[in-house]
Amino acid sequence: MGPLEMNMSMVSAKKADISIQLEHEERRPGKKRKREVDVWMQRAGSLEDRVHKLGRKVQETPFLLRFMLADQVRGLATELDKLHEKGRFDHGLTLDVKPARGYELQPGELVGQASQTKRDEIWDGLMKEEVLHVGVWGQAEAGKTFLAKHIHDRIVRDCPRFDGACLVNVSQEGTVGTIQTDIAKYLELDLTGVSAVYWGARLRKALQGRRLLLILDDVWKSYSLEELGIALERNGCKLIVTSRSKEVCKQMNCHELVHIPTPPEEIPQEFEEEEV
């Protein structure tokens, strides 16, 4: 019983350490304990009870009859050895799990009446049943991305019209392939091993029946939604495009356009002189 109880104390200490580590990791968003960890913890708890009961039984059994319990002691010792080996968890205790509606981007507080008005203007356009594309355009640093992130988070938190939101930073270097890859990552769709020519078809199928808001941020040129694999419909997915160019928004069929003016203090002097 001595070695058995010693091994049990080691497993109990490991169980306590794992509990503390799980408590710490599960505080982080998108982290969920592995099922095998839960099973191990339950098994460890069960063995603790059995070892303690056996210990009491040994003490209560007359000395000359204790040899009859030897098989139980050896059996528990074997189970403990196996449990200790399985409790290594070399690949971690938790999994990365995306929240059901997506992650909040938390861009910061929306300050000023003008910003709130523009956010509401984008939102109102998005909520129109007949509007599938909303274009948000304005100069660099006007706040297009900031407002788009606020719309994104409002949908992620709770919006019955949508199941979630996905924001893709396109930028000047963006390609059809990079956009498709980012959307696929959000959808947890594995495109590896599939020829790039079929990526659009795979995305289109994955988006079918979904009600997502897709945001293509900082778009420098027009992209074909058909080539990207983005299908929009009234009770399905919708799209926000942010760009410095009003023409790019129009070319991507954004019939609802929202202009974000640069704050007066940020307008370069040459633009002020031209307007005068």
TrEMBL record:
The keyword Protein transport does not apply. It comes from the Eukaryota. GO terms for biological process: defense response. Keywords: Plant defense. One of its GO terms (molecular function) is ADP binding. Residues 117-256 form the NB-ARC domain. InterPro entries: NB-ARC (IPR002182), P-loop_NTPase (IPR027417), Plant_NBS-LRR (IPR050905). This is NB-ARC domain-containing protein.
